[in-house]
Amino acid sequence: xxxxxxxxxxxxxxxxxxxxxxxxxxxxxxxxxxxxxxxxxxxxxxxxxxxxxxxxxxxxxxxxxxxxxxxxxxxxxxxxxxxxxxxxxxxxxxxxxxxxxxxxxxxxxxxxxxxxxxxxxxxxxxxxxxxxxxxxxxxxxxxxxxxxxxxxxxxxxxxxxxxxxxxxxxxxxxxxxxxxxxxxxxxxxxxxxxxxxxxxxxxxxxxxxxxxxxxxxxxxxxxxxxxxxxxxxxxxxxxxxxxxxxxxxxxxxxxxxxxxxxxxxxxxxxxxxxxxxxxxxxxxxxxxxxxxxxxxxxxxxxxxxxxxxxxx
Length: 312
What we know:
Strand order of the largest sheet: 6-7-8-3-9-10
Distance between the termini: 33 Å
Helix content: 25-40%
Number of strands: 14
Order of helices and strands: EEEHEEHEHHHEHEHEEHEHEEHEH
Number of helices: 11
Oligomer: single chain
Low-confidence stretches: none
């Protein structure tokens, strides 16, 4: 494993004790794109902060490429690239200078730094923007510059914290392509996200995290299959007493599970002919006001594990 996390905890003491990370164990294989998927406040960013030496753990250990990030932080940083959640480009420097100075900081000679910078500008389709300043770039272009800068010293592992935050759909897809392209350079990627489609699209494996704990870890396909359901039906109902309806729905062919919602029921189901009409007919006497249908996704997995949406 190129990233090894064992018994990792982070507790913030104060007027209110906050357990941000609660005994996490994770391993990331070389060359993987690995995702930490969970809602805001789940502990994703804190975990990344510890892995990248920006925060100290309360307990446990992290090794990157075999190097302990607490005992040998300076050495560990040579194997780490980081793209934080917010834009950290130097606004007083051009795009070329942002990347070039990063290369010099990590010990490249002036000639090597210039060559590497020009290579990265071409790789990320930024050559025409080399003399521009960060304030002149769109969010998507700025994110590509941040990724280019983060891998300028050829790290073993790149950490991306919510890489799609604030990006429009087109920029998000371009960013996905840039991240996927890092495989050819042998760079392992660890990213945090609360976008289920991002984790599904990019990641070889995903760990779902909530309240500082890892709930489940596997490939996106295996996690979705583990639900035993292909669709989610969310019923908005007027009736207050729903126990009889719940029991009736359980008897329908294809229904695998039912959970209560504040205004109705959530029905998990496999594909079955005529199931939608049966659900509607069964629920109508209970004041069916609305019905929402979604395909099984990583958010479905999170809902099944926690009983709430990723965005809550």
